Amino acid sequence: MSASADQIQECFSIFDKDNDGKVSVEDIGACLRSLGKSPTMADIEALKTEIGAKEFDINTLKSIYKKPNIKTPQEQQKEMLDAFKALDKEGHGTIQGAELRQLLTTLGDYLSTAEVDELFKEISVDSTTGAVSYASLVNTIVSGYPLGGF
Known about the structure:
The protein is mainly alpha-helical. It folds into 2 domains: about 5-65, EF-hand (Recoverin, domain 1), CATH 1.10.238.10; about 75-140, Recoverin, domain 1 (Orthogonal Bundle). It has 8 helices and 4 strands.
């Protein structure tokens, strides 16, 4: 579901605290999230560089909102599930905790060991096999678990 022009304008107005038609570039991630997008930290840093100024206007927000590389949580969920399914040759719906830890700390928008430790406190790891349901993991991440890279 896309945000309407009115919703984008309303969002911009909320972040434009002094009504000067400008919003701090530091708020770009929060703006996009409030409009239903889910930019990664890397996305946000790239957008800040692209904007190239300390502030942005409504037209910049509209342009950025339309970018296809800024995913919704549902799009991110599908992509993550597809990636885990590709790794799951046996089709069990699980990944070993040690393998997951390795992936999360070394690939893509990787996480710190401390962030992975926090995540592991939130997910269920089978005490017998050490396996993690990747569907449950993805739901935890997409539902708003505050990880820097996601």
